[in-house]
Structures are given as structure tokens and as C-alpha cells.
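Saturday, quiet lab. Running sequence design on the C-alpha cells for the scaffold JK sent over.
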């Protein structure tokens, strides 16, 4: 320890304490278990929640594939809630990033209840358009521009 300056050790300890403050980051990619549930508060703020299934697969000792599904309660607020309410439904595949929050409340019998939720601050819808059975799905029709012949050019590739 004699070769390090005391000031350098102090800086390292302070930096280490700041780094060790903690990280609450969740990344999930899965499918909705049911249609999103929407609630709008009196002040106009919208909250949407849904269950999200994530599945991991592995092979057991006999070589059989085993699927293990976990269910997560996801909560979206404001603009993300609007998007989820409009475009997501049961089975939709989404990628979400957020943080874990645990809420506590007393039920009607006075028992303390807890729930753990993922408060998402980023969401990406995956999987493309749904099939014809989905509400609002329309067949894609080529635009008139697609029917026009490609312009000729003198590019060498």
C-alpha cells in the first residue's frame, strides 16, 4: 500500500461508494397475456397495465426441451400508455425497459398485500402487423408509386 498516494485511495473509495448506489433496470421481451387494461385519472393522466409472459427454454438431463414461463405485471404511463392502448392486444410481442417497483396496500380484510410491477419507460412493439382476425387489420395494398417503372440510371452497380 506504500506505493499509492493517500489522495488516490480516498478518490477510489468515494468513487466506489457512488458506483455502489445500485441499479434498478429491467429488460423484458415477451408476449401479452391479455389485452391491456386502461385507466385515466381525474387529472387526465393515463395508466395502462398488462401481463407479459417471458419464456426461457433449456434441455433437461434426458435431452428434452423444457420451457419455463415467468409472468410480469407491466405498467405504462401517459404517452406510452396511449400507444399501448391503441396498438397492443393479447399475444402482441413487445420489448420493454423499465424498473421494478413494489406497492403495498391493505385489502378489505385488513391484510397487508404486495405486488411487484415493472414500470416501463421504453417500449418497442415487435412482430409486425397482426393477421386478418385482429381488430382493425387491413390488407396492405401497393401504392400507385409502386406500379411505376423504375427510372433508368447510368450507375455502374
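Result came back. Writing it out in full:
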Amino acid at each position: 500500500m506504500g506505493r499509492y498516494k493517500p489522495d488516490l485511495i480516498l478518490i477510489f473509495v468515494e468513487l466506489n461508494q457512488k458506483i455502489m448506489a445500485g441499479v434498478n433496470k429491467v429488460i423484458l421481451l415477451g408476449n401479452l397475456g391479455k389485452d391491456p387494461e386502461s385507466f385515466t385519472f381525474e387529472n387526465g393522466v393515463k395508466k395502462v397495465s398488462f401481463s407479459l409472459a417471458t419464456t426461457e427454454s433449456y434441455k433437461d438431463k434426458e435431452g428434452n426441451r423444457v420451457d419455463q414461463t415467468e409472468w410480469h405485471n407491466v405498467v405504462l404511463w401517459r404517452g406510452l400508455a396511449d400507444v399501448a392502448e391503441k396498438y397492443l392486444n393479447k399475444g402482441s410481442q413487445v420489448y420493454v425497459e423499465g424498473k421494478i417497483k413494489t406497492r403495498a396496500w391493505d385489502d378489505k380484510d385488513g391484510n397487508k398485500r404486495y405486488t411487484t410491477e415493472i414500470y416501463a419507460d421504453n417500449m418497442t412493439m415487435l412482430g409486425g402487423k397482426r393477421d386478418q382476425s385482429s381488430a382493425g387489420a387491413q390488407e396492405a395494398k401497393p401504392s400507385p408509386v409502386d406500379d411505376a417503372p423504375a427510372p433508368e440510371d447510368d450507375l455502374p452497380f
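Notes for JK: Residues 47 and 77 are 5 Å apart (CA to CA). The domain at 24-129 is CATH 2.40.50.140 (OB fold (Dihydrolipoamide Acetyltransferase, E2P)). Ask whether to fix the surface positions before the next round.
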